[in-house]
Amino acid sequence: LPGQTNYLSLDKLGYLYQIDYSNKCQYWTVTYNYYHTNIVPALPAN
Predict the structure, then answer these.
(1) Which keywords does the record carry (predicted)?
(2) CA-CA distance, 42 to 4, in Å (whole number)?
(3) Tell me, what's the pLDDT at 2?
(4) I need a surface site. Which of 15, 25, 32, 45 has the fewest CB within 10 A?
């Protein structure tokens, strides 16, 4: 999507996720039991 910004976040299990904020209302913290379809799993964080 135009103007889309990607952010990195850690979930409670220490995994790194890339969050695509296609909507400003999606600015929430990632938790291990609440995933949005726009979150793509990345490599585990050290």
Answers:
(1) Lipoprotein
(2) 18
(3) 41
(4) 25
